[in-house]
Amino acid sequence: MADDGENPGGNFGDNLAGKVALVTGASSGLGHRAAVALAGAGAKVAVTARRVDRLQALAAEITVSGGQAAPFALDVRDPDAVKAVAKEAAEALGTIDILVNNAGVSVVKRPEDFTLEDYDFVHETNVKGPFLLAQAVGREMIKRGTGGKIINISSMMALRTTAKLALYGMSKAAIAQMTKQLALEWARHDIQVNAICPGYIETEMNEEHWKTPAGQGMIAAMPRRRIGKPEVMDGVLLLLASSRSDYMTGTLIPVDDGQVMM
């Protein structure tokens, strides 16, 4: 992986050539970067999210760079939409070999202030959606009998606690356990299920926060006094998507620069 992020395929070259990946939450942040990295390593990528205009721009970006991508509008909370997009993506690009469950949201409040609507919004997006996607894609992987890779994006918040993020942390802990459970039950089908637990990563959604006194104070308290860029995920993502991780399943991999130790 190039340090400047210009060659997300890095030393993996085209080892994902001929593979098809589906990425959720690809309209920005980690999902956008995951799609670019997978395409850079040779995969055909189905990019999904609710913001279709962003997906179309991403697909065009990948195409201009010599890759192949197709956009699909998807709200992961909708069971019918999940099934439909999994089918449409396979028809457009080929059977799905790699699923990246990235879509996620958060609500920042004290526990006593969360509403039922907050709870449903976070857990339907962060837990229900990823499970439905894994189920839809997993069924097809089992049916065709050639295995596959499911990569869930959990969080270091599944491994530690932080004020005002109770719902988010609970949801990401559920994703961590879902990863282990699916890994166990689908091992005999040669489906590897693993999770990445990112630390603080600067994205479009939080970039302004890191410029504030509160954000700067958080950075100063981190072990290496810095936050990551989305491309720091490339190496682990491409490892888990490739045959190099065939002996890995049910693992939770922190990519947090030591922040979990704070």
Question: Summed up, what is this model?
Answer:
With 262 residues, this protein is of the alpha/beta class.
Would you kindly provide a written description of the structure presented here, covering whatever features stand out?
With 262 residues, the chain is of the alpha/beta class. It has helices spanning 29-40, 52-64, 79-93, 116-144, 166-186, 213-221, 234-241; strands spanning 20-23, 44-49, 68-73, 98-101, 148-153, 191-198, 252-255. The chain has one domain (10-257): Rossmann fold, CATH 3.40.50. It is globular. It starts with 19 loop residues before the first strand and ends in a 7-residue tail after the last strand.
Features:
globular; 7-stranded parallel sheet; disordered N terminus; single chain; 7 strands
Which spans of ≥5 residues are poorly predicted at pLDDT below 50?
1-5
Question: Major beta sheet, specifics?
Answer: 7 strands, parallel
Order of helices and strands: EHEHEHEHEHEHHE
Mean pLDDT: 94
CATH topology: Rossmann fold
Helix content: 40-55%
Q: Strand percentage, roughly?
A: 5-15%
C-alpha-based Rg, rounded: 17 Å
Count of beta strands: 7
Kindly report the name of the CATH homologous superfamily.
NAD(P)-binding Rossmann-like Domain
Could you give the distance between the termini? Answer: 27 Å
Secondary structure layout:
Blueprint: E1 20-23, H1 29-40, E2 44-49, H2 52-64, E3 68-73, H3 79-93, E4 98-101, H4 116-144, E5 148-153, H5 166-186, E6 191-198, H6 213-221, H7 234-241, E7 252-255
Parallel strand pairs: 1-2, 1-4, 2-3, 4-5, 5-6, 6-7
Helix pairs in contact: 1-7, 3-4, 4-5
